[in-house]
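Morning F.,

Quick status update on the modeling queue. The single chain you submitted on Monday has been processed. Sequence for confirmation:
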Amino acid sequence: MLMRLSHDLGLYFYDVLVARFDLWAAFGVLAQLVFGARFIVQWIASEKAEKSVIPMGFWFLSIAGGLMTMVYGFARRDIVIILPQMLSIFIYIRNLMLIAKDKRRKAEADLPT
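Structure tokens below.
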């Protein structure tokens, strides 16, 4: 039984990693690496600040990785990837809009009257 499972797993991973691996799969992997890099950026910024922070780079990597993943979903014609990415990208952009709005508000408050 273990021999059969080992053989089947080997065939599965060969199929996924070799037989079906193409340029779009490579792009999808790259998209996930870009998307995942945002957590490294957030971790480094938090370590420097010695508290939990979300830097602007986090949101830009979120948008870039989300767009790349959505393109991958369109290329693969996979609605399970496309729909959540569309919503997520909207949320990331909205966060940047809120950050910009807050900065404008603070800048206006600092102006002499």
